[in-house]
Amino acid sequence: xxxxxxxxxxxxxxxxxxxxxMPPKSRPRKExxxxxxxxxxxxxxxxxxxxxxxxxxxxxxLVLLAFASPIILLAAVLVKLTxxxxxxxxxxxxxxxxxxxxxxxxxxxxxxxxxLTGPRWAIPGxxxxxxxxxxxxxxxxxxxxxxxxxxxxxxxxIGPRPERPEFLPNLERQLPGYRDRLLxxxxxxxxxxxxxPADTDIESVRRKLSLDLWYVENxxxxxxxxxxxxxxxxxxxxxxxxxxxxxxxxxxxxxxxxPETTLPETVRARARVAA
Length: 275
Description:
mainly alpha; two-stranded antiparallel ribbon; 11 helices
């Protein structure tokens, strides 16, 4: 009786052969391994910090409010005395994971400034800005009431700038990965805010997006501390080319050189879990 002996291929070879015989659309997607240096490591190494960040923000906001309250009250009185309308104004913004919230700021423009034009970005020399509003904007004192948003849990001390929902659909169409910046809470200050001017067009938003995504990938307590210190220099009028170097804060040119424009799903998942 003859015995036939066959050499069986390895299991992996069987899977590869079976995969090759499958229609292209039915083949399982292969995970592409990226080099370690190209992986976003912030959420991997510092997930513990993201879970504590809200508590740190609340404590820091309380401390800052204790010092800033007299300044806010004085500025509010001056706004009320120098122009018609309320001292504070509220506006809907987009927060973490696309949730809407109401932001609080000192009013720097004339009352009902968008009644004729509709929602639009401010422009250099914007005629809607009051004389006192120009001072408040240059010194960023108009941002101080946002500390209340931090205490309510809508915002963080450090994070991307909160955008208006009216602008979001157009920005998402023109800028791939724009929604990825919503993985973290928006901030009173941030990596983009301390070195780039306010948004005026799509290109200015594009430059800030590269910094926002870099921050999302590399968020850490040490990075937040450096941005906070750099914000102090920024408020005092120290140029970013000096304050950024003193605080070792990455520049816009550094973020622009990053090959990643969107975040992989693994980072998005870790962000949701950590939050």
